[in-house]
């Protein structure tokens, strides 16, 4: 994984795990790879991985079972709230970037519609092949 210089690595790892949970790579109650395995996989110090996992545990997204490892929570409400939070954060970041460029809400909506239409067309064309 390529990390950004302006964001602490443990936060980027935390975000990656959150995204994987939301996307269904790790289902509710699923066992996460060990801290050591994640460290090797992501080429990051074990302590950095552990810091990310500890925050996920504090937030209730991950549950540690002593002697067994780390597991995704079985609480669907927590995962749904996480999904909503990440979506709002992503859209908020996009909105801030576009308004900083001088676009108003109408222009943002216009360009978003164009973008989505192009993406849908591209997806339709790739599914035909």
Short description:
The protein is mainly α and 129 residues long.
Briefly note the structural class of the backbone. mainly alpha
Q: What is the residue-averaged pLDDT? A: 94
Distance between the termini: 30 Å
Tell me the series of helices and strands, N- to C-terminal: HHHEEHH
Q: Approximately how much helix is present in the residues?
A: 55-70%
Biggest sheet statistics: 2 strands, antiparallel
Strand order of the largest sheet: 1-2
If you compute it from the alpha carbons, what radius of gyration comes out, rounded to the nearest whole angstrom? 18 Å
Number of strands: 2
Low-confidence stretches: none
Task: Summarize the SSE layout with pairings.
Layout: H1 9-23, H2 35-42, H3 46-58, E1 62-65, E2 69-72, H4 76-100, H5 105-128
Antiparallel strand pairs: 1-2
What would you note in describing this structure?
- By secondary structure, the protein is mainly α.
- It contains five helices and two strands; from the N terminus they run αααββαα.
- It has helices at residues 9-23, 35-42, 46-58, 76-100, 105-128; strands spanning 62-65, 69-72.
- A two-stranded antiparallel ribbon has the order 1-2.
- Helix 2 (35-42) crosses helix 3.
- The radius of gyration is 18 Å and the shape is elongated.
- The two termini are 30 Å apart.
- The model has no long low-confidence stretch (mean pLDDT 94).
List the defining traits of the structure above.
single chain; 129 residues; mainly alpha; two-stranded antiparallel sheet; 5 helices; 6% strand; elongated
């Amino acid at each position: 994984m390529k990390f950004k210089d302006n964001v602490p690595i443990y936060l980027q790892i935390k975000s990656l795990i959150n995204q994987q949970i939301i996307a269904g790579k790790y289902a509710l109650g699923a066992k996460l790879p060990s801290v050591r395995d994640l460290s090797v996989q992501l080429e990051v110090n074990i302590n950095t991985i552990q810091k990310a996992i500890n925050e996920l545990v504090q937030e209730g997204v991950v549950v540690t079972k002593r002697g067994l490892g780390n597991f995704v929570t079985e609480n669907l409400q927590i995962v749904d709230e996480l999904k909503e939070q990440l979506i709002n954060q992503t859209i908020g970041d996009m909105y801030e970037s576009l308004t900083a460029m001088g676009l108003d809400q109408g222009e943002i909506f216009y360009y978003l519609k164009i973008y989505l239409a192009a993406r849908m067309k591209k997806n339709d064309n790739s599914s035909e092949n």
